[in-house]
Design a protein that fits this description.
- By secondary structure, this protein is an all-alpha fold.
- 70% of the residues lie in helices and 0% in strands.
- The chain contains 5 helices and no strands.
Amino acid sequence: MESSGGSKGCMEQLSTFIRTLKGILLTTEIALCILILICYGASVTLGYVSLAIFELIYTIVIFIIFAFEFHLQVSFIHWGWTDFLRALIGCVAFLITSLIVIIGHHDGAGVAAGVFGLLVGIVMGYDAYTIVPQLRKQHAAVPHPDPTGGI
C-alpha cells in the first residue's frame, strides 16, 4: 500500500533511517544493551542491570525520535546536545562498570556482559565523536561591528 500525499510510510522511514550511520550506531547500541541484559540476567552480578536498562530505554527513545523525524517538529529541545550527552555519559558509564565487572567478578556470564559493555562503550564513544561535527556546524559566528566605525 502506498501512503497518500507523497509522504513516506512508517516502515519506509524506519528502513531508510536504519541504513544511515546514525541508524546503524543506534541499532548496534540497542542490540548490545539487550545482550548485556541477557548476560547479567544469567550471571550472579545483577547490580549492573540498571545501567543497561536505562541506556536501552534512552537509546530506543532517541532512535524513535530520529527515525520518524520528531526532532524536526519539536524545536525547543536541542536534540544534538541531548544525543551527545546520552552517548558520552553512556560511554563513560559502560566503560567504568564493565572494567569493574571484568576485574572483580569471575563468573562467565558476568565477564561476557563486561566484554559486551566495553563494546557498547566504544560504540557510544564513536557515536559521541560523530555528533561533535554536527554540533560545531550549528554555531554560526556572531558578526562583530567594526571598531573604527567604518572610517
